[in-house]
Amino acid sequence: MSFPYSVNFNNPLKSVISPENQDQVFLFIKCRILEKKASNIQTGDNIISYKGSTSRWRGSLFRMVDDGFFALIFKNHRWALHYHINCRSLFIDTSILTAIFGFFALLLSIKVGWPWWSGLLVWILSYLWIFGANWITIFFQHRELAADISIEIDELISGKIVKADLDKMDGKLSNWF
Fold first, then answer.
1. FRET label pair with 124: which of 18, 26, 62, 135, CA 20 to 30 Å apart?
2. Based on the structure, what is the number of domains in the chain?
3. What angle do CA 62, 7, 55 make, to 5 degrees?
4. Mean pLDDT, consecutive 10-residue segments, the chain of 177 residues?
5. What digits encode the pLDDT tens for the residues 117-152?
6. CA distance linking residue 159 with residue 12, whole number of Å
7. Are 172 and 35 spatial neighbours (Cβ–Cβ below 8 Å)?
8. How far is Cα 117 from Cα 137, in angstroms, rounded to an integer?
9. CA atoms lying within 13 Å on the CB side of residue 162
10. Domain of 22: which CATH number?
């Protein structure tokens, strides 16, 4: 999938990722996305992936994201945090919702006596509004998440985040209700 259904964020890191601190960084990323209610988190070689959210309608950052992954990459003599998200369900859900809305708008425009294309125009504008507004919101929220995590990784490696804070992060789900 390509843009706009999948988006990549690359945030450069000031710190150097080494084999000694790499596990600590991945544990930190895992705990941060668990706090934000990500679901089905899997850790692989230099990658952490997730599938959607544990809380689809209760304020989860990942509710309209199908899946995504975080990876640490070495590019242009610097380390960077690469974050990739897929938003296919956003496209499908808004298409179904606006198709139903567009059908009723078309019937209403014909019944009122307006030209048929006015119902089609209502459908197109409603799709652009619903899909566009949700996509822009998701884009900016996840861009901010990637930026925050990359800043916190730099703080973690430089020692601004205390080891006691990391010990509290056990990687388990907490009760959000």
1. 62
2. 1
3. 5
4. 79 90 91 86 88 67 86 91 91 87 85 83 86 90 94 86 54 50
5. 887 888 888 888 888 888 899 999 999 999 999 999
6. 18
7. no
8. 30
9. 3
10. 3.30.530
